[in-house]
Specification:
The chain is an alpha/beta fold. It has seven helices and seven strands. It has a seven-stranded mixed sheet with strand order 3-2-1-4-5-7-6, with helices on both faces. Helix 2 packs across helix 5, helix 3 packs across helix 4 and helix 6 crosses helix 7. Keywords: Methyltransferase, S-adenosyl-L-methionine, Transferase.
Length: 222
């Protein structure tokens, strides 16, 4: 743990799990599509991929991805959120922990995709953002993807002003060895234009290149 409260805890007091779940249940009952993030990620993956849902909340996205045949681990620092996730999907792996200290959770590296949806990045504890990006990059396999979605203005955030810019975020990703592959304005894949209030980004970790010593004789490394 960092010892510093994240912005989400400041907003909710860490007791928002049931209320959060009920909010999305009402949206689903009114006909809203609750699976946009999961569908977006699934389109990027091969079958039975290994996914880390970072800041998983009540598990809405991870549960759907598991239903689609993927292997999902959810991590969140809010125990009230995880209580709902564990109740609704007890067979899945739910871990209580700080995203800035993922190494403390004993996660095996090699995830195909790490997801930070639902404004996870701007709601982190101030000053920990680059460490979180670095930790998420570290658990990815070579060629693995970091997928994020977060608001860039007050209309798309539960905050009076955005604490993170895309320029800052891309810089943290570059420092962690990640490259921007795609950026959209919505989870439906609408094109991103400068000034959009929301950004869905796909960054990738470079694939591992074989060393000359391991390359087959007479064949150049791919």
């Amino acid at each position: 743990m960092t010892g510093q409260r994240d912005r989400w805890a400041e907003l909710t007091g860490g007791q928002a799990g049931e209320e959060y779940a009920q909010r999305f249940a009402r949206l689903a009952e009114s006909g809203h599509d609750m699976h946009g993030e999961a569908a977006f990620c699934a389109a990027l993956l091969n079958p039975a991929a290994r996914i880390l849902d970072a800041g998983c909340g009540t598990g809405r996205i991870a549960v759907r991805l598991a239903e689609l045949g993927h292997h999902c681990t959810g991590v969140d620092i809010d125990s009230s959120m995880l209580a709902v996730a564990r109740r609704d999907a007890p067979a899945q792996e739910w871990l209580l922990g700080d995203l800035a200290r993922l190494e403390d959770l004993g996660l095996k590296p090699g995830f195909d995709l790490a997801l930070a949806a639902g404004n996870v990045i701007p709601l982190l504890a101030p000053g920990t953002e680059s460490a979180v990006v670095r930790q998420l990059a570290a658990v990815l396999r070579p060629g693995g993807l970091l997928v994020t979605g977060f608001g860039l203005d007050a209309a798309h955030l539960p905050l009076p002003e955005p604490p993170v810019t895309l320029t800052e975020f891309d810089h943290w990703c570059a420092q962690a060895g990640l490259t921007l592959r795609q950026r959209y304005a919505t989870w439906s894949g609408d094109p991103y234009d400068q000034g959009c209030g929301y950004a869905v980004s796909v960054h990738s970790r470079p694939p591992r290149e074989p060393s000359p010593a391991t390359a087959s004789p007479g064949h150049a490394p791919e």
